[in-house]
Specification:
Helix 9 runs parallel beside helix 10. The protein is α/β, with parallel strands linked by helices and 287 residues long. The protein is built from ten helices and eight strands. The chain has one domain: Arginase, Chain A, CATH 3.40.800. Strand 5, helix 6 and strand 6 form a beta-alpha-beta unit. It has an eight-stranded parallel beta sheet with strand order 2-1-3-8-7-4-5-6, with helices on both faces. Bound molecules: manganese (II) ion. The site of manganese (II) ion has 6 residues, from loops. Its cofactor is Mn(2+). This is Agmatinase. InterPro entries: Agmatinase-rel (IPR005925), Ureohydrolase (IPR006035), Ureohydrolase_dom_sf (IPR023696), Ureohydrolase_Mn_BS (IPR020855).
Length: 287
């Protein structure tokens, strides 16, 4: 039987599409992100199906459609093409795409289709890392270079929650004046940081790229590089509520790496999908 979000049958008029993207080719250290889409979908029926904050059921208001978990070719260009085709189909069906990675490189597949449809596409990037290397371990298309490739397409990016970088990336951000908010900025001056995020969201169509390692490893241990000092659940929800107020047109949730005997990160990822869908449902109901 096909795995679906919340274990529910696909809604015939679904406005949200879940796109499993089990890409794992360029992962450098701890392996396992290929299993994440399956594991996230598997834990999702254990969530409560009612959102206490918006007081609604997103599966009723918007409805979910879950694509089958695809067998991706072990070639980065071919794999990104497969992902990009599924995203294009989702946009044609007028559904909100939520990609479930997989390594961060899947974002490039998504953007390939999105930039054909949206002329003022912008990326809000939540991540402990900048992913701004020019190449990594000989690869131009890798989880460590994904934002550099997006930047080169001329698509505006704001990276939020950053707390570690390479010297190459340090020199790049100095040279280019790349837009970012360190995790430290959020903690030291939340109001000013929040305003910077809001100013970024005001114009254009926003795509959210969420690397699960933006969270503190204490609440998201199942990631490839569990960088200390990350975001909390409630900080994240404040940012997400803000993003949903503006023109959010799609998202991905990447780099979960399931840990045997500990489903906390997969559960968090499933909860994020449910929460964002609840906020989108609330907006849909009141518009
Ligand atoms: Mn990262």
């Amino acid at each position: 039987m096909k795995l679906t979000f919340l274990g529910l049958p696909d809604h015939p008029q679904a406005k949200v599409a879940l796109i499993p993207a089990p890409l794992e080719i360029t992962t450098s250290w701890q392996k396992g992100t290929k299993e994440a889409p399956t594991e996230i979908l598997k834990v999702s029926p254990n969530l409560e199906f009612f959102d206490e904050e918006t007081e609604l059921e997103p599966q009723e208001v918007l409805g979910f459609f879950t694509f089958p978990v695809p067998e991706l070719p072990f070639d980065i260009d071919m794999a990104l093409d497969v992902i990009s085709k599924i995203v294009r189909e989702t946009l044609e069906e007028k559904r909100f795409p939520i990609l479930i990675g997989g390594e961060h490189t899947v974002t490039l597949g998504s953007i390939k289709s999105l930039k054909e449809v949206y002329k003022n596409l912008k990326i809000l990037h939540l991540d402990a890392h900048l992913d701004l290397r020019d190449e990594y371990l000989g690869c131009k298309f890798s989880h460590a270079t994904v934002v550099r490739r997006i930047y080169e397409m001329g698509i505006p990016v704001l990276s939020v929650g950053v707390r570690t970088l390479s010297k190459e990336e340090y020199e790049f951000i100095k040279k280019t004046n790349f837009s970012l908010l360190w995790m430290r900025d959020l903690r030291e001056n939340w109001d000013r940081s929040f305003k910077i995020i809001e100013d970024f969201l005001k114009e254009g169509e926003i795509y959210l790229s969420l690397d699960m390692d933006v969270f503190d490893p204490s609440i998201a241990p199942g990631v490839g590089t569990p960088e200390p000092g990350g975001m909390s659940w409630y900080e994240f929800l404040q940012i997400i509520k803000l993003v949903v107020r503006y023109n959010l047109i799609g998202m991905d949730i990447v780099e979960t790496k399931p840990v045997a005997g500990n489903a906390i990160t997969e559960y968090l990822a499933a909860k994020i999908i449910f929460k964002i869908s609840s906020y989108l449902a609330k907006k849909y109901e009141t518009s």
